[in-house]
Give the backbone structure.
Amino acid sequence: MSLLSEKPTRKGGRSARRAARVNAPVIHQPALMRNVPVYEVVNAEGVEQIHELAMRIVENIGVDFRDAESLDIWKKTDAEIQGERVRVSRDTLMALVDQAPPEYVHHARNPERTVTVGGHSMVVSPSYGPPYIYDLEGKRRTATLVDLHNLQKLNHMASSVHIAGGPVVEPMDIPVPYRHLYMAYSGFKYSDKPIIGNVTARERAEDTIEMCKVVFGDDFATNNCCTTSLINANSPLVWDATMLDALKIYAANNHAVMCSPFSMAAASTPASNVGTMAVVTAEALSAIAFAQLVIRATGTARGSNAVWCAGHDRCTEFRCAGTRQPGFGHRPVSRWSDGAALRHTPPGDRQLCDLQIGRHAGCLRLDVGPVSFISGRCTVDHHGRWHDGRDTRRGLCKNRH
């Protein structure tokens, strides 16, 4: 009888390893939990200075609400309305802002993918809106519906991405009037994570709500947050009818809205950080307060899930969110919003080049990643690595402003 051990045999070789990769389970990581202290770049006196300037803007200068229905809603308060300009006292404004809950639950089609936004929780969302992509052959071209589907699948597979997105890219082969239907359907079909709603027209926001009712049921979709959407102010100090229509539709249905001033320091706002932060504070707070008025008009008891999203860019020629420059502005905003129990959601890690991607992946995204933690962000948007018009030669997804 031979005592020699049997020669070990291969377990399928390369084909078995390939099959194992193809059939590997999709692992989803929970939302990040911030356990590090917020980095203080301004002291209490500096925060109060920003707040005081913002209140003076709201009371003395005012913010334009270029929508008749919105002005009618403001008229039910003690706000002073002159044309489209709304001036409101700081007491009224902050009383409304205080009604916004400090956190909310963003529901997914799969309950296991539902995330909490706010508090110490931080979620990651993919890119938003670029009409161009670079394909695997290195060709820059307009994005198609197939590209959107593929990117939705990739976001679904990405363990560290918590939101499926909505307009991850713009499918330029679909006509604009019903493109939003395809984008929402793509998010629901190819991912079971939470989605982003459409805001480019009142009817498109309404269609998104109706699609949520198909997926979640009428009662659930009306009384729970099933989308988080993004609206932009036209800095300085203007909220237009398109953005306000979307805000009204989503707020009335208890869906979250990120209120993001689209500011460029020294162009649409003052050049200094303090001046810029005062302007975007006035813009964001006026929208958050208005969302509470919409909720009150619909008879809902709880506050609107309006989110502070300060899109502050320290660059006048090209938007450069996701780099070091606006990070200096986001931190004071985070410091202020933390004191007001508001959720802070600045843009994320997107202004990166090909070689930088490897470096940042290995170094925990030194330019942006830790800033997300130390500034107290609750959401990191635009995490799909798309690039702005400054560099049209690199990246997977592109956008030209």
